[in-house]
From TrEMBL:
GO molecular function terms listed in the Swiss-Prot or TrEMBL record: pre-mRNA branch point binding; zinc ion binding
Gene Ontology cellular-component annotations: spliceosomal complex
Main location: nucleus
Protein name per UniProt: Branchpoint-bridging protein
Gene Ontology biological-process entries: mRNA splicing, via spliceosome
Family that this chain belongs to: Belongs to the BBP/SF1 family.
Residue stretches making up the K Homology domain: 95-187
Alphabetical list of InterPro entries matching this protein: BBP-like (IPR045071), KH_1_KHDC4/BBP-like (IPR055256), KH_dom (IPR004087), KH_dom_type_1_sf (IPR036612), SF1-HH (IPR032570), SF1-HH_sf (IPR047086)
Subcellular location: Nucleus
Keyword Zinc among record annotations: yes
Annotated keywords: Metal-binding, mRNA processing, mRNA splicing, Nucleus, RNA-binding, Spliceosome, Zinc, Zinc-finger
Organism: Oryza sativa subsp. japonica
Amino acid sequence: MKDFAADLDPEVHNLNARLLEISRMLQSGLPLDDRPEGARSPSPEPVYDNLGIRINTREYRARERLNRERQEIISQLIRRNPAFKPPADYRPPKLQKKLYIPMKEFPGYNFIGLIIGPRGNTQKRMEKETGAKIVIRGKGSVKEGKLLQKRDMKPDPSENEDLHVLVEAETQEALDAAAGMVEKLLTPVDEVLNEHKRQQLRELAALNATIRDDECCRNCGEPGHRHVRLP
């Protein structure tokens, strides 16, 4: 049933009009930023993809701004008008939470190893149990000289932030569950009491097929595996 009350809402009307305007602009193929040179802010340092093509041109940035505004307008229309049907290409924004890794406070503590685990298994396990996406982002999260990019080759601004764990989820419940798991690993635990690390060592030993019942690890003192490097 058509929501006539929403149609009479002037703000809903303005949002619909702006959505139509942005959609036409994005589909027109015409320049999206035709401001004169003096009216524009200074351009940022150029960023290139793996093919050497610049991906943060003035036109690209203008298109990104319009796409973000379009997404926000659609989200507002969904909240204000239950009868509104979003475009087929609309994807609801995921919930996010950044958990900064206290590397400066605890420089010798291997937070990343505890979060990722042997062959990435700890990270994968947390994702499977919660349904959330858990990734390491920020300075030091990738090898030097390798640009941190999304699948669509767009630059990720988080590469210049302090090292952190980014948790993404469709629901608040999944976000809270995953964030809670990660937060526990971001609290330093004494080596002797760190059961999580001992479990990772046992798992790594099993993966490397080095477990023997008559041996004890020199790192954790647990029987059943040889000396292995801490994760």
